[in-house]
Specification:
Blueprint: H1 15-18, H2 23-38, H3 49-55, H4 66-70, H5 82-95, H6 99-125, H7 137-150, H8 156-159
Helix pairs in contact: 2-6, 2-7, 5-6, 6-7
Length: 173
Amino acid sequence: MSRGRLKHGNPPGDPSKARRPARWAFGAAIACAGLLVYSNSLKGPFVFDDLVAIVDNQSIRDWLRLGHVVFPERELPTAGRPLVNLSFAFNYATGGLNVTGYHLVNIALHITCALVIVGIIRRTLELPGARSAPNRSLEIAFATALLWTVHPLNTEPVDCVTQRSEPKCPKLP
């Protein structure tokens, strides 16, 4: 331990950071909340466009024809969305038509978007021109992202597998 520094790197006498949890704890809390809220979707069946985009989609079944995977037929919901079809091919290669794997990927993408939201909001609030308390930026970002993570309006991209192509990440101005 260096002289004049606490074990966690906070300068002595700095009350704003004395009891502040580590940044990873906020991320872990968001991940746990997302897993808890969406764990009931893991056994949900393929519905609506999932049947056409995954169950009947022959382009995701053959990795050797990568061009066919990246550029699926025009009639498929994944046409014009090469990364989505590639992610479905990855899911199919690792678990076939086991719906749990597809939902796990959707949950992971949703949690990743929430963590990106934390970073964007925190950094925005710490800008020199921002009129906020810079020592509260992480807490404000965490609260906002946590609300976004568990809000009922965001269930569609997690529960309906093909909605992976339409993540509900907030748009920046």
